[in-house]
Amino acid sequence: xxxxxxxxxxxxxxxxxxxxxxxxxxxxxxxxxxxxxxxxxxxxxxxxxxxxxxxxxxxxxxxxxxxxxxxxxxxxxxxxxxxxxxxxxxxxxxxxxxxxxxxxxxxxxxxxxxxxxxxxxxxxxxxxxxxxxxxxxxxxxxxxxxxxxxxxxxxxxxxxxxxxxxxxxxxxxxxxxxxxxxxxxxxxxxxxxxxxxxxxxxxxxxxxxxxxxxxxxxxxxxxxxxxxxxxxxxxxxxxxxxxxxxxxxxxxxxxxxxxxxxxxxxxxxxxxxxxxxxxxxxxxxxxxxxxxxxxxxxxxxxxxxxxxxxxxxxxxxxxxxxxxxxxxxxxxxxxxxxxxxxxxxxxxxxxxxxxxxxxxxxxxxxxxxxxxxxxxxxxxxxxxxxxxxxxxxxxxxxxxxxxxxxxxxx
Length: 410
Known about the structure:
Structural class: alpha/beta
CATH architecture of the largest domain: Orthogonal Bundle
Number of strands: 7
Strand order of the largest sheet: 2-1-3-4-5
Largest sheet: 5 strands, parallel
Helix content: 55-70%
CATH superfamily of the largest domain: Hypothetical protein af1432
Strand content: 5-15%
CATH topology of the largest domain: Hypothetical protein af1432
CATH class of the largest domain: Mainly Alpha
């Protein structure tokens, strides 16, 4: 990265750019800010000036925003791509933007929200630090899906009488389907960011017609082939993701966390290992050499950082931040193995602490083994260590026996 992050705002109307300039003047000492009229001028700028973040309008004459962002994705995949739209975007534009952009903002928009979003993304990116990893993460437009789950979802979606409940059930069982479905709801087409909600509820919100229209081609999804070097490992990770989603949701309810945290618990559990998925799928040969050495979540993180320059937690948190997932979810994923280092911790349980516990419980059956994966001094300091037996029993007696988990197929 540059000494100062470089950001370009793109619009076809100079008065809008001047409004940005006035609103962002106080940040000129922190950001290297550019203002560009239209797509062609922006691409000329990027030929000579590294850009970390682009914020582009969509409805521009000449080169449309969709065309510009597609070019930026192809030429500069490491650049964070944010969409700014006044609404009324065509459905086919939204379908393209879901493949080329990270987040969506609507006009008129809250400048403070944009500032906080950009600063959070820069902070998450700084934790990744390795430029190759940054390029890898920012270039991802879709996560791989479990073959069996995706084929069942696709068959239901393409059927003559698609059942919304069944589609929602399949979406909620797979990290790839969950991530893409929730990213799609963080768009001006739907009017409100719902990136943290339960994926089943997200499908209900979208409806079968919209699902069929926006996801009518496999460009939004792909599956993990059986000859992939990490096929068996990823099969285990995907089942653990469903297990973690069910368990974290139950623990958040049992601990009576605030409603805004309960609402994102399932998704946080489902995507808590998204960094592992990205590394294992995208860097297959190198990652396959590491997996036999994984004896604990902490050791996995250490080996990843040594090999790639970043662990699955920081990679996952940056990815979720790019795709517009809630800050609490990003924080929990980022500090899942180092909860004692998480910022702004109150007393008792919170989402980060519960994700830390959840990931230990799903990776072993025996309570003593689960404890060996945990930061016990941290849990004791929070008054949570005495609850481990209770949480272990809840997992063993209620979560692991759920038909959705027992009958799950990769």
